[in-house]
Amino acid sequence: MDTKTETKKTLYHYTDFNAMKGIIINGEIWLWNLRRMNDSQEMQYFIKELKIAVKKQLDQSLYTKMDSLFTENLRDFDKLSSYAACFSEYADDAAQWARYAKNGMGVCIAFNKELLAKIGDAGHAPLCQVNYSKSCDDMEIVKELADLIKNSQNYSTEAIHELFNKLVTSSPLFKHPSFISEKEYRLVSLPYNVNQYLGQPHFYVEETNIKKYYILKLKEVCNSLYINYEDLFEEICIGPQARVTKDLLSDYFSFSGMKELCNKVKLSDCPLRRF
Predict the structure, then answer these.
(1) Helix, strand, coil share (%) of the chain residues, nearest 5
(2) Strand partners, 29
């Protein structure tokens, strides 16, 4: 995975107040199954676009060989899932408020990007930027796969397996361009051996559904890295339609033992205000 994050210095997580409590007060962020998020086909979309790009570099006589290699090495792909927590480069964004923060009634947590990246690396869920390209043509793995298909006799079984593992671990970071407005980053697990790196799964039971998730323990990782936990949060912005006041949220942080955050609370400037 490419974990370079060199543009914005702050990333934003839009959510509700209950999840905010879990993240800030409890020191945990939940990583959800990417196959059950808003673009449930995104991992399959990557494979589809990748095959199209590889075919452009092959003679038609090699198409059957390519299909066989993909089928053989991606046999278990539909059973694999990455788990992720999602962030945006956009602060106080109307679309993000509407989609992820209860139609503006929630909250947006501004994270220090550098610290979040360090925590992700240490917690086995690296911070990665999502790719919204319309095609995979320029990706290095396309060239590698085309060479494999043309010269498979030069590759060991282990080398082939490693290349397809690279393909699978890239799949959570390629998203349909219709989602480009989100400008998304993710703390994302590798699809393989999730339990080994993130511990046992947890289950969120709703009236009509059960969702599986993993926990990245922000506070614990901060302590292990000697990071002041409150420094991770640069701002907590109250949604444009939320009933919670700035004073009330500041009081909540104060009584929860996190007085450092009281001066980081602000109100949204987004013109979706109900009151």
Answers:
(1) 45, 20, 35
(2) 216
Q: pTM, whole model, 2 decimals? A: 0.85
Tokens 């934003």: give the residue: 12
CA distances from 161 to 58, 77, 89, 100 (A): 21, 13, 35, 37
How far apart are alpha carbons 108 and 236 in whole angstroms?
A: 6
3-state secondary structure 12-59: EEEECHHHHHHHHHCCEEEEEEHHHCCCCCHHHHHHHHHHHHHHCCCC
Q: How far is CA 216 from the centre of its chain?
A: 12
Of 144, 197, 191, nearest in space to 170 by CA: 191
Per-residue pLDDT of the chain (275 residues; tens, 9 = 90+): 444 434 569 999 999 999 999 999 999 999 998 877 655 566 778 888 899 999 999 999 999 999 999 999 988 887 778 899 999 999 999 999 999 999 999 999 999 999 999 999 999 999 999 988 778 888 899 999 999 999 999 999 999 989 998 888 888 888 878 888 889 999 999 887 888 889 999 999 999 999 999 999 999 999 999 999 999 999 999 999 999 999 999 999 999 999 999 999 999 999 875 54
